[in-house]
Amino acid sequence: MLPPPAVFHFLWEINTDLVKDGASVRTNGRSVYSLKLLISYKPEGSKAVLSGQQSSAQCHVYVQTTLVEPFQPILGAQYFVLGEIEKTDGLTGVILHARALSNVDGVDLTLMQKAIREQRCFFKKRIPEINEQYSASLHTV
Amino acid sequence: MAVNPADADADELPSVLWGLDPVFSAYSRLYITDILQMKESRQVPGVYFYKTHPLFQVDVLGTVVYKREREDFYCYGVDDSTGVINCLCWKNEKWNDQGESTECRDPSGSSRGFNIEDELKRLKEAERKSTVLEIGDLLRVRGTLKTSRDAREIRATSFYKVNDPLMAVQISRMLEMPQLYRKCYDQLFQMPRDDLGGTEAGGSSHFHCLLSRSVLALKEFLLEKEVARFRPYDVEFLLHPLIQSSSAEQRTFLICCCFFLADAEKGCHVLHILSSLRQRYSQNLSREVLEVALTFLECNSDIISTTEAHYTVL
Fold first, then answer.
1. Is the pTM for the entire model greater than 0.90?
2. Does the domain spanning B247-313 belong to CATH 1.10.357.10?
3. In this predicted model, what pLDDT tens digit does every residue of A102-114 receive, in sequence order?
4. Buried-most residue among A114, B16, B84, B176 (CB within 10 A)?
5. Which fold has domain B15-92+124-184?
6. Pairwise CB contact (< 8 Å): B174 & A118
7. Domain map of chain A by residue range?
8. What is the C-alpha end-to-end distance of chain B, expressed in Å?
9. Which domain of life is it from (chain B) (predicted)?
10. What is the pLDDT of residues B209-243, one digit of tens each?
11. How many other C-beta atoms can be found within 10 angstroms of the C-beta atom of residue A37?
């Protein structure tokens, strides 16, 4: 009845094999542009694109915002999103179906990344039986 | 999930000693995945063990991913990124009292009375708003852990919506948790060094044996006499056979235990303890010495001060 826990991921990890299809994740990124695609008789819903930066590489993730409508996008703002991954073969690659989306402009990104890394490090060091569920979601299938 | 057979057979800490572990009295901040996987105690159902620590109260912070509302309560599913758990949050009746009209103000019609009522209304409204959450909101819950229908859930004693626009609260929690685990929860529970019984033969085990027997004697007496409250004077005789074999310090401690049990709700005033000890043992006992002893006991979490001059045990 309860959804599975949404594990923290960095934006650049979403597009890689690190995340399984159907997994619940939470991540954050900067809103780049928001697309509203309405096809007659089959409204596709709205899509937003989040961008994040690792070293010098930019990466984009498409976010399906149907469940969190009405959604007032502020372009260029930082967003925190929690939802399910869907891996498609199309141009868009991976789509994140957002269940929760919130504006977190002003968040200390460096500190947040440090906190996520520290939490991961802590879980990796623990006895495997205890964090079996958690580490399974971090590794490739 | 594979369970380490050694863990399943490991002895639990005896329940009479649970009060000595500070984690037992605290609202533990554990990851939800740990809360869900903790073993229930074989001695007392409703108490759970995280490694060597007994506990039954937890404090979680997470995103609401599930919501169910009933007439009396909300059931929020909270996700802290390691696990999801249901939290039962009771509604407070006073929030429903929205029907207060502005007519029912102070009959004298003083403007001061009107302001207070207004502020009170606003306070109630703010309190109520902090308890109605939607999916995606951040929730902080402190409550007791229960297992109901094979599922773990938290019965909230307090809960509120956290306004965290910069994610500062979540980030600081994420940084703090591994530290808490390393310093506290993952540390093996150590029996406090027994200064009181150090010179006696058998030392701490002798003392604990005394403690267990004194608790047992008191319990039997209470059962027999069917009393809920009693004076320390009435039960001291039960402890005399035990006291004779122990040192002076242990005697003092046992007497203290006795007093505290008598006034479990509010605690026992320090002067009351002092006068009784003076009657029983020595007129020369000074308040300062007693307070040193009480502070020592409080530091070891044996007793708790309910006010500046009242002490009690859990």
1. no
2. no
3. 888 888 888 988 9
4. B84
5. OB fold (Dihydrolipoamide Acetyltransferase, E2P) (2.40.50)
6. yes
7. 7-107
8. 36
9. Eukaryota
10. 666 677 777 777 667 766 556 666 666 665 555 55
11. 9
